[in-house]
Amino acid sequence: MQCPFLDHNQQVERFCINLNCCEKLRLSCNQCHEESFHIGHQKDQKLISNLSNFVEEISNKCEKEVIQILTELSDQINQMIFLLKDKIRSQFQISSYRLKTLNNIQINQMLCQFINLNNVSQEIIELKVVAQILLTTLDERIKNLDSNQLSYKQQSSWDIAEARQYYIEGLTLFKNGDYVKALSAFDTSLMIHPNQIDVMLWKGDSLYYSNSYQDALMQFKQVLKLDQSNINSLYGIGDCLYRLNQYSEAICWFDRILVLNSKHAKTLTKKGDCLQKMNNYQEAIFCYDKALCEDPSKFWTIQSKGSCLQELKKYQEAISCYDKALMLDQNNQIVKSQKSYCEQMLQK
Ligand SMILES: [Zn+2]
Ligand SMILES: [Zn+2]
């Protein structure tokens, strides 16, 4: 690499990482050195051969000290809002079945509680005002970063072929399990050539597999803006909500897929998983059965159906499920121990 000073006919030797450096350029050659550039902060001159290490170091630091904190913050906010919605629902929504089981005192209490809805809705308006402050601050930060974004990215002659190269690089990294680096490759690809649905979905998967479920969820929602009936993004949203333990919300998204394709086996299984988590074993089995109609040899679907039957104390049926699963994977320890538990229960 040539020294950027045109009259210096030499190769770059060092780069400067000093915080307060006011030299024109951070790259320097031996002649720069002789002319005493960066003289006040020699210790911050790094050999150019260390550049890629430095880039990696910054990338890791960014992930650990910034992105992770933001992820935790957004998880906390989402979790709190989720709990708040749950509490409000449980106070103001009551099923017609449960209503029939209440006695006069309970109905009286219920009515007293219902009167409170106006207060709650007033509190939510106040909450929106507080939230607006945070939203405005975030918006300012984004705009700041936008205006600071260096033009080095736009200056090079990037094109669609280059975007594709980053995409392929991302796929390779993803397959090797390096999700954070894959994410950055997909990001670069999308920066050069935005709104590529395939790349956006892989970006969502990278976030998902790095356990950033909230970010993955937002990414899948971005895809939905471009293609409202994209099954992969609908599934991704549902799956993230499942990971975030928001089972009934997840089911709403899986149902949107099932409207488009009622035989989507993967979705039927995942919907079953949500129902199982909500202790609704009967309906879970119904979903697993439908999934198994489409794809009879899915090990985990069979195993999950067995677990539900076991919960319902239908041990004989559970055992026959586990036997089917063991035909697909005869050494699976989880299924083996589930089966022997059922056998013990039958002997009692
Ligand atoms: Zn120079
Ligand atoms: Zn300097």
Automatic annotation (TrEMBL):
Residue ranges that the Swiss-Prot or TrEMBL entry lists as coiled coil: none
UniProt keyword Repeat, yes or no: yes
Protein's UniProt name: Tetratricopeptide repeat protein
InterPro entries linked: TPR_rpt, Ycf3/AcsC/BcsC/TPR_MFPF
TPR repeat residues: 163-196, 197-230, 231-264, 265-298, 299-332
UniProt keyword annotations, A-Z: Repeat, TPR repeat
Domain of life the protein comes from: Eukaryota
Glycoprotein as UniProt keyword: no
